[in-house]
Amino acid sequence: MALSSCISLPLSSSLSMMKRNISAKRSELCLDSSRIKVHNHWSFIGGSSISVKPNVSTNSSSVAHKKLSGVRASWLATSQIASSVFAVGTTAVLPFYTLMVVAPKAEITKKCMESSIPYVILGVLYAYLLYLSWTPETLKYMFSSKYMLPELSGIAKMFSSEMTLASAWIHLLVVDLFAARQVYNDGLVNQIETRHSVSLCLLFCPVGIVSHFVTKALTNNECK
Asked: Collapsing DSSP states into helix, strand and coil, what is residue 8?
């Protein structure tokens, strides 16, 4: 009994002294318990020691995870929109080229090519992609030279975005289809073969236009 009393008295005094030291340390440093954790370690050999560690709460980690997830979701959504509009625009123009090549003199082909609906639809898609791809840096890339003229390096930076590339592709589809319709209508008026020129307009629009002019010149010479 005497031995246990002798051991318990120093032990209790050490514990009380340890608690007073912790309270003093906390009051002196004015630690914010929401941000910092105070850990006390006591042993018979080393005595008591106090360590201060940052309190990384699960709330802060969850907020960071949500921000990262939001950025990934936004990037994926943008990429999916660009890919979807790219596919829709490409598929939408193919029936018109098919009609002009397969059945150029059919009434359904003439009515379809007289319609302005495909240009309106593609124009709306282009405007939508242009709105999504527009950034404060767009004008700087477009007019990057000191003479306020486009430069190849600036245009390359501007088209590094998938959304900008998709909008440029829709832009080309509209212009190519419009040029192909002009070639087709001119061929109907002057009774000139336009199937090869229309096909070239789909892939290489300027080459298709030149092909139509060459075909028209050769046809006129044969008629004379």
From this structure: helix
CA-based radius of gyration for the chain: 38
Q: What are phi and psi of 45, to 5 degrees?
A: -85, -50
Q: Which residues of 177-201 are buried (b: 16+ CB within 10 A; e: fewer)?
A: bebbbebbeebeeeebebeebbbbb
Residue 71's Cβ-side half-sphere holds a number of Cα atoms within 13 Å equal to 5
Residue among 198, 222, 202 nearest 212 (CA): 198
pTM as predicted: 0.64
Are 97 and 202 contacting, i.e. CB atoms less than 8 angstroms apart? yes
Over residues 63-92, the pLDDT tens digits come to: 444 444 444 444 557 788 888 888 999 999
- Is the separation of the CB atoms in 55 and 33 below 8 Å? yes
Say which residue the tokens 């709105």 belong to: 131
Helix, coil or strand: residue 50: strand
**Average pLDDT value for the chain:** 76
The answer to whether residue 212 scores a pLDDT higher than 80 is yes
Residues 149, 51: Cα–Cα separation, whole Å: 63
The residues pairing with 42 across neighbouring beta strands, listed in sequence order, are: 48
